[in-house]
Amino acid sequence: MSEKPILVLGMMSGTSADGIDVALARISGAPPNLNAKLLGHTSGKFPPALRREILRVAEQQPISAGELSQLNFRLGERFADAALSACRQFRVLPSRVALIGSHGQTIFHQGRPVPYFSSPTASTLQIGEPSVIAARTGITTVGDFRPADIALDGQGAPLVPYADYLLYRHAKLGRVSLNLGGIANITVIPAGAEPEGIVAFDTGPANMLIDALVAHFTRGRRRFDENAHLALQGRGIPALLNELFRDPYLKLPPPKSTGREYYGRAYLKKVLALGRRHRAKPNDLIRAATIFAALSVVDALDRFVLPKTKIHQLIVSGGGAYNPLILAQLSAALPRIEVLPSSRLGIPEEAKEAFAFALLAYESFHRRPANLPSATGAHGPTILGKISYAPPR
Ligand SMILES: Nc1ncnc2c1ncn2[C@@H]1O[C@H](COP(=O)(O)OP(=O)(O)O)[C@@H](O)[C@H]1O
Ligand SMILES: [Mg+2]
């Protein structure tokens, strides 16, 4: 198995289900001397009807086995199209790309076991059939990264911390990598850390609640609060914010992971009722959700990280990094920490997670474990993913 430079495409669609992010990376070597360079990134939106169906299914609305099977293959085609159009855009022939890592679209994630037919069961399901991606692109594709970790009693998430460790570790600086997708998650990388010293977990909702409120109040005309335009017109209601902070998830000790199952529609309903009780206008509620997105991260840092670890920098990525109110709140609440967007370290905010799945696929393909048991709670390291080989040329 050669460890000279290869081109790897990483693809990701997160809990926001806003579209597919694609990153092209040149990767060589092996940890601790793995070299990864991001060569390009792009993203494509889902057609609105398909997105509505993904969100409906991810909200655990009824779907037949037949429809789920169809959706898996249909999404496989979308991911394949995204890969091919990224290659055209980057002017790279697909035949030069050695490997694809495709996270797929999560439609269910239950990281902690819950009773199911009287036995505690954890499970996760990402769809977007990798065999279709491999067939259409002619590129061997690694998919289904999470189940191997759950099979070792881990939560199957978060997986990006392995990439965070490789990309951001620093001999002298303690760093936290914060990704603000639908959900906010942090990776804590103490100065000079070894992989065993990495702590990572989901801190709570980032854009999921904001997006849901915006879609609700605009009857679907807007999908998100671009540049915090609406939140900045809202009025602060401290009592309402205090009630948001009573959320029991915040107090749960890590490892922990969450998603639309917890912060989806039922949660939106609760927050809307809270808003009515406090006579909040739509923009007041959007403001509260935005401040909660930022300060629930700070709460997690104060509770579980800063008492034990010296942190110098907070590196922010994900779509929420473009929300000026979230960034301002983080900086104000963490005066002793430098808050900086990941692009300052050469990784565009919207490309970080796709880049991470290129790295994870590279590791899987070389049969190296890439889960961090300290982050997922798994019994031990494991090789992630399943390989769909490209048809012979
Ligand atoms: N300019 C912006 N202003 C405010 N929010 C933004 C902006 N750009 C993106 N976002 C937010 O980022 C979200 C998408 O982030 P992303 O990292 O793709 O999340 P996920 O990984 O869950 O798909 C959007 O739904 C939106 O809420
Ligand atoms: Mg996204």
Can you walk through the features of this model?
This protein has helices at 48-58, 65-90, 130-137, 147-151, 160-168, 207-217, 238-244, 248-251, 260-263, 265-277, 282-305, 324-333, 352-365, 373-376, and strands at residues 6-13, 19-28, 35-45, 97-116, 119-127, 141-143, 175-180, 183-189, 199-205, 313-317, 338-341, 386-388. With 393 residues, it is α/β, with parallel strands linked by helices. Helix 5 packs across helix 13 and helix 11 runs parallel beside helix 12. It is globular. The structure holds adenosine-5'-diphosphate and magnesium ion. Magnesium ion binds next to strand 2.
Brief sketch in words of this structure:
By secondary structure, this protein is of the alpha/beta class.
The secondary structure category is: alpha/beta
The overall average pLDDT, rounded, is: 96
Sketch the topology as an H/E string, one letter per element: EEEHHEEHEHHEEEHHHHHHEHEHHE
- What is the strand content? 15-25%
- Proportion of residues in helical segments: 25-40%
For the biggest sheet, the summary is: 7 strands, mixed
Find the count of extended strands (DSSP E, 2+ residues). 12
Poorly predicted regions:
none
Task: List the bound ligands.
Answer: adenosine-5'-diphosphate, magnesium ion
Assembly category: single chain
N-C termini distance: 19 Å
Radius of gyration: 20 Å
Number of helices: 14
Q: Which shape, going by the Cα principal axes?
A: globular
What are its keywords?
393 residues, alpha/beta, 12 strands, 38% helix, binds adenosine-5'-diphosphate
List the SSEs and their pairings.
Layout: E1 6-13, E2 19-28, E3 35-45, H1 48-58, H2 65-90, E4 97-116, E5 119-127, H3 130-137, E6 141-143, H4 147-151, H5 160-168, E7 175-180, E8 183-189, E9 199-205, H6 207-217, H7 238-244, H8 248-251, H9 260-263, H10 265-277, H11 282-305, E10 313-317, H12 324-333, E11 338-341, H13 352-365, H14 373-376, E12 386-388
Parallel strand pairs: 1-4, 4-6, 7-10, 10-11
Antiparallel strand pairs: 1-2, 2-3, 4-5, 6-12, 7-8, 8-9
Helix pairs in contact: 2-3, 5-13, 6-11, 11-12
Magnesium ion is lined by residues 13-14, 16, 18-19, 21.
